[in-house]
Design goal:
By secondary structure, this protein is α/β, with parallel strands linked by helices. It has helices spanning 2-14, 38-50, 76-88, 100-107, 130-143, 190-205, 210-216, 229-237, 290-301, 333-351, 360-363, 371-377, 403-425, 432-450; strands at residues 29-34, 54-57, 70-74, 92-97, 148-155, 161-167, 176-182, 219-224, 248-249, 254-255, 306-314, 318-321, 356-359, 382-388. The relative contact order is 0.12. The structure holds arginine (ARG) and zinc ion. The site of arginine has 12 residues, from strand 2 and strand 11. Its main location: membrane. Belongs to the peptidase M14 family.
């Protein structure tokens, strides 16, 4: 069943709708469906199998459960049949996106339009194609050389260079590392937009914000704005809803590995597919993909210095902790959850958005080979996956007018986690108040010793 869905999905999206290479989604809808009984579940699994459906939530028909809502992109050609089937079996549904192509068109400013660039320079309120992100990285390090450097990490499958930005205040002190990557899944465009936003925020505020000032004394921040560069480009040029990398398999009969199932953490064991046409193909072995290998090699070399590993996705509004491949809790589960809950509270204060915090296998689904689990397994204490907005109203095609609020609230959350980690690891350096209270303690101790 898993197999045939993958094949159907692929067929469904490989038939071009119009002239040119780009795939269109005219008349496709995204539906929210609520199965209430195990009969409903079976009927839905069958419909997924016979029609060309693209499941957004859950990702696999076998993960459909009674009482849990589904989000499905339905090709225009299957809409009538699906709705007929749902009505016939009395399964309730609602339309989330009435026309996927219209929604996509309305989110993309026309090329050369004034939205694209603002007079002051780079606009952080639009999605940027990869060439612009490369250019942005160059500009950022050129104009902020006192704080930012750009470093080569490796090559993608299609031979594009991967670079990360290192944000580091010069000091002779050995510092610890915060890692953050974005864009491991191609279609989750809000994720690279966030990495760029976050860099901008640090640069704008590090001289004045006491919290940023304080953590930059102990921590360097490493940011990889787009991990899956080939996939990201493909989602711009050819197929907006592409998820995986672009590596070719089985003599070029199918493409792409789910890079977030390709890491060496209980690789290939659960919530993955070994069929290369599946959306969740885990690759041919752990780190079989050059993008995965590049990240893993680098982090492994520095693992004793990395305190925090953050990987940014959409959608669903979660801060997820290890593990995804098993229901056992991480050894520092309490701390992980405490930091994430603080982050979720701060996030909500910004725009009222609700995030769920918890272990992936318990609050979302089981999957193996994620970078978050792998990072924790090699000894990085604070490892999280963020699933940004929304909860399905727009799903993977979050409109650009939500970039700003999404990035604002996520910035607050990430800053909260970094502060937590900083205070935990460098308890005496946090703020001026701490040295004040240290003196108080010393004098108390001194008086007590004398008496
Ligand atoms: N970014 C996640 C992934 O692709 C999505 C997870 C949950 N959300 C969802 N709509 N299925 O793995
Ligand atoms: Zn994702």
């Amino acid at each position: 069943m898993k197999l045939s869905l993958g094949v159907f999905c692929l067929l469904g999206i490989l038939i071009p709708g119009r002239i040119g290479l780009r795939l269109h989604y005219d008349g496709d809808q995204v539906l929210r469906v609520l199965p209430q009984t195990s009969e409903h579940v079976k009927q839905l699994q069958q419909l997924c199998d016979t029609l060309l459906l693209d499941l957004w939530k859950p990702l696999l028909p076998e993960d459909i459960q009674a009482g849990e809502e589904l989000h499905i992109r339905v090709p225009a050609s299957s809409l009538q049949e699906l709705k007929g089937g749902l009505n016939q079996h009395l399964i309730s549904y609602a339309v989330l996106i009435r026309d996927v192509q219209e929604q996509l068109d309305s989110s993309m400013p026309r090329e050369g339009s004034s939205h694209w660039r603002v007079p002051e320079g780079y606009s952080y309120n639009v999605y940027h194609p990869m060439e612009e992100i490369y250019h942005w990285m160059y500009q950022i390090k050129e104009s902020n050389s006192e704080l930012v450097t750009q470093h080569y990490l490796g090559m993608t499958y299609e031979n594009r260079p991967m670079y990360y930005l290192k944000i580091s205040q010069p000091s002779n002190k050995a510092k610890k590392i915060i890692w953050m990557d974005c864009g491991i899944h191609a279609r989750e465009w809000i994720s690279p937009a966030f990495c760029q936003w976050f860099v901008k925020e640090i640069l704008q505020n590090y001289k004045t914000d006491p919290k940023i000032k304080s953590f930059l004394q102990n921590l360097d921040v490493y940011i990889l704005p787009v991990l899956n560069i080939d996939g990201y480009i493909y989602s711009w040029t050819t197929e907006r809803l592409w998820r995986k990398s672009r590596s070719a398999h089985v003599n070029g009969t199918c493409f792409g590995t789910d890079l977030n199932r390709n890491f060496n953490g209980s690789w290939g064991s659960i919530g993955v597919s070994h069929n290369c046409s599946s959306l969740i193909f885990c690759g041919t072995g752990p780190e079989s993909e050059p993008e995965t290998k590049a990240v893993a090699r680098f982090i492994e070399k520095r693992k004793s210095d990395v305190l925090c590993f953050l990987t940014i996705h959409s959608y669903g509004q979660y801060i997820l902790t290890p593990y995804g491949y098993k229901t056992d809790l991480a050894s520092n589960h309490q701390d992980l959850v405490e930091a994430a809950e603080k982050a979720a509270v701060a996030l909500k204060e910004k725009h009222g958005t609700n995030f769920t915090v918890g272990p992936t296998s318990l609050v979302l689904y089981k999957n193996s080979g994620s970078s978050r689990d792998w990072a924790h397994m090699i000894g990085i204490p604070f490892s999280y996956t963020f699933e940004l907005r929304d909860k399905g109203a727009y799903g993977f095609i979050l409109p650009p007018d939500q970039i700003q609020p999404t990035c604002e609230e996520t910035t607050t959350a990430v800053m909260t986690i970094i502060e937590y980690v900083n205070q935990k690891h460098f308890p005496n350096s946090a703020v001026a108040v701490t040295s004040g209270s240290l003196w108080l303690w010393l004098s108390v101790l001194f008086t007590w010793t004398l008496s």
